[in-house]
Amino acid sequence: MWAGRFSKSLDQKADDFNSSISFDSRMYKQDITGSMAHASMLAKQGIIATEDCEKIIDGLAAILADIESGALEIDMGCEDIHMFVEAELTARIGDAGKKLHTARSRNDQVAVDIRLYMRDKSEEIIALLKELIEAVTEQAEANKGVILPGYTHLQRAQPITFGHHLMAYAMMFLRDISRIKVAIARMNYSPLGSCALAGTTYNTDRMFAAEKLGFDGITRNSIDGVSDRDFCLELMSDFSIVMMHLSRFSEEIILWSSWEFSFVELDDSFTTGSSIMPQKKNSDMAELVRGKTGRVYGNLMALLTTLKGLPLAYNKDMQEDKEAIFDSVDTVAICLEVFAPMIKTMKVKRENMYRAAQKGFINATDLADYLTKKGMPFRSAYKIVGQIVAECIEKNCVLDTLSLEEYKKHTDMFEADLFDEISLETCVSKRISAGGTSVGSVEEQIAYVKEELSK
Questions:
Q1: What share of the chain is helix, strand, coil (3-state, %, to 5)?
Q2: In which residue ranges of the chain is pLDDT below 50?
Q3: Known catalytic residues?
Q4: At what angle do helices 162-187 and 106-142 cross, to 10 degrees?
Q5: What pTM was computed for the model?
Q6: What is the pLDDT of residue 3?
Q7: Can you name the residues that pair with 27 across neighbouring β-strands?
Q8: What is the separation, in whole angstroms, between the first and last Cα of the chain?
């Protein structure tokens, strides 16, 4: 394409090094769609003849159909997907195909392609997140009254319902969707028509092409239009947060699946065994999600580092954006595709959860609240309950089994009704504050999530 300026061909190794078609070929649909809009704009503005525009659009439509049907194989010998499409178009329709690149550069062409591609893929990831939220919510609804210990510092802290615990993840994933939607909205402006960096002398209509491609407007500065990759960084950051949430969830599933916890059992279709230990049932899918999180983080850091020292406008370094962002998209998508059915088929061991909740003095706060409601300052109640817990540890008993007489040694405020107040069921049911662990609150959370998903 630059033969007029150069007297000899590019060295083969340099040509291979320079080529991007091995990875940017996945944007063939977006490249063709963008070219169709550009051709329509050129004809509307009288820059090319309507007849040539029709040939170009028909030719591009045929190329797209042939690629998707398998009738046309993308030539990996071309430098990039843009040159492959243009060469194939020219071979099919002749000189009219050579007019397509009028008032356009590969710089704005690739910028529009990747925005279109990331818009499409981001919508797919949102759909996968919704499927996961539905699976989590379904499990939460089925286990809204199941009691287990809630943890802080990985120490048993207070009794909660499993439905409440699961809905925490539903809220995280809802925020992930919100973040991605905001990133899409900020990205949804067309750089097409920025050309190499300075715009063009042709009387183009950038807004017309932008509207045909479903953009909300155009980028307002042509230099920024071709050199901006903020949207890639923003989406990669959002994807990293998605993976962080998945990784935290994976860590809990791995713990819950262990013999030491035995709170849940993953379905056989989402676990593996051992080549030497026949008793093993490993939560490998959750472990892989946890491991792949670092990969997505790495992609974000790689692109941040690539962009940090680049002068304006376009530089070849920016070709490095694609492999990083494509890998992040692929990784997040496959993790979500596996995670949702893994949660959906997960078996909850309710009895084991309840037995664990009976240990660890997780109703100690409720015992302190019992005294506080009778008029004792909370800090005084806190100290007394701490002394009672220490006494129980020494006697190898729990708060529920300590006698009323032993309670009264600490304060006459204790009455027989304290045992009802510190039962696990009461501890959970009386946590009626908004967003709390009571069954009613969990039901409200589920209703809220379902409403958000329907929007």
A1: 65, 5, 30
A2: 2
A3: 153, 274
A4: 160
A5: 0.93
A6: 53
A7: none
A8: 48
